[in-house]
Amino acid sequence: MRVTRSIKARRQAIACLAAALAIAPLAAIALPSSAAETDPAVVATQPVQGSSNVKVDGNRIVLGDAPAAIGSTEIKQRSGLAELTPVRFGAATSAVVVGYTTGTPDSSSAEVDVRAWVNGRWSEWTAAKAGTPTALPGTSDQIQLRIIVSAPPTGASPWVGDVTVQPTDQAAPSGMIIQAAPLQSRVFATREGLVGGTTANGHVIVSRDHFVALPSRRGLAGNGSGTYSVKVCTASRCAFEPVWDVGPWNTKDDYWNPSATREMWKDLPQGKPEAQAAYQNGYNGGKDQFGRTVANPAGIDLADGVFWDALALPDNGFVDVTYLWTGDGGRGTVSISSGYLNIRNSASSSGAVVGMAGKSAQVTVECQTTGQSVTGSQGTSSIWLRVNAGMYVAKAWVSAGSFGTC
Predict the structure, then answer these.
(1) Which pLDDT does position 146 carry in this prediction?
(2) 173 compared with 137, residue with greater pLDDT
(3) Nearest-CA neighbor of 354 among 223, 238, 235?
(4) Is the pLDDT of residue 68 over 90?
(5) CA–CA distance from 179 to each of 94, 137, 303, 315 (Å)?
(6) What is the DSSP string of 39-50?
C-alpha cells in the first residue's frame, strides 16, 4: 500500500467543523484567514449531495461497496466520488495548499481536486497535489474539494483522509480562465447506450436518458447536478445536457482547454480530442491513454435520449459542442424532476420540437419574449426564453432571472 503524508491537522478544528455541518450541512464553512498567512484548516470529511459510492470512516473517505461498472470509457472498475462541503476564507486568495493522506492498495487510486467560486459560478476541477500550491483560475474566497477513489473490480478499498486546506500566494498564476464567450468545437459524437450501467458520477443509466460524457473529470458534474453542461447542436436541432460521465476513450483529455493548460496531450491544438488525432492522424501511435487502438474519432458520448430524440441523429457523426461553464452569459437551469424539456421553434407549446434540455441542465439565454402561458415547476408564466436562434423554452420550467426582450 502506498501512503502519502501531508501537513498534520489540528484535531480540535474537527469538532468545530462538525458542529457547523450539523447546523447547515450544505452551506460553506467559514474559515478566518488571509491569503498569505494562515494555518491549515481541517476540512470535514462529509460528502454533500451529488456524491456517490463512498463511505465515511472517521476522518477518511473510503470507496463504497457498489459493484464494478462500465461507463463511457468501457473500462470495468469500482469508483466513488465525494464532493465535500465548500470552504469560505476570510479573504480572497489566488491559490491554496491542500493536505491529505491516501491509501491506495492493489492497483487502486485516489485523487483530490479543487475548484473555486469565480464570477458567480464554479470553475473547472483541478487536481491538487498534497502539500503543493494549486493555483485557482481567479481570486476567490470560496473553494470546494472533491475526492475520487477507484479500484479494480474486486479487492482494494482506497481512501483519502486528514484533509486540510489553506490559502497561499505562493503559486504561479493559473492558465485556466472563464471567458466572455464559452468555448465551442466541432467533434465526433457517438451513442453511449449502456442502459443499466453506471456513469462516472454514480448515475444509473435509464432508457432514453439525457446526459453526455466528456473525456475528462475536470468538467464532470455531481450526480443530479448541471453545474457542468453542454450545448450540442446539429444544423437544425440543439440539446442542452449535463456532463455525467467520463469518456469516450480517455479520462484526462480536456481538449476544450488551451493546450498549455490541457491535462494531457499538450501538443494538440485546442478543440481537437486526442481520440480524433489518434484515429485520423496516427497520433500517439493510434492509441488512447490506456494503450487501446482508437476505433473512432469520438470526442463526446451522447446518452440515447440525446442521440435519438433531442438531436434525431441517424448515426454517429460530427456535432457542434459548446462547453457552457467555460464562459459568461445569460443562464437558466432546467427544473424538472425527470426526463427532458422540449425546445420549440416558437414561444408556444404547439411549436415544433427542435431539441431538448435534460434534467438539471444549464441553458444559455439570449433574451425573453411573451408567448403561451404555461404552468410548471416555477409557477405559471407566459415568458419564454430564447436559448438559440429560433429556439425557445418555457420559463415556467426553468430557474432563471429576467432578461432583455427579444
Answers:
(1) 98
(2) 137
(3) 238
(4) yes
(5) 17, 11, 28, 33
(6) --EEPP--B-TT
Contact 305, 208 (CB under 8 A): yes
Residue listed under C-alpha cell 460521465: 245
The CB density around residue 401, as the number of other CB atoms within 10 Å, is 9
* 14 compared with 110, residue with greater pLDDT: 110
For residue 236, the cross-strand partners are: none
Q: Judge whether 157 and 94 are in contact, CB under 8 Å.
A: no
Query: Which of 74, 77, 76, 96 has its CA nearest to residue 86?
Result: 96
The set of cell numbers assigned to 353 is 420540437
Q: Which amino acid is at 376?
A: G
User: What average pLDDT does the segment 237-262 reach?
Assistant: 96
Nearest-CA neighbor of 335 among 375, 301, 373, 306?
375
What's CA 10's distance to the chain center, in Å? 31
- The pLDDT of residue 29: 56
Strand partners, 140: 93
The whole-number average pLDDT for the span 93-104 is: 96
Q: Is the pLDDT of residue 149 over 80?
A: yes
CB 173 within 8 A of CB 135: yes
* Contact present, 305 and 210 (Cβ < 8 Å): yes
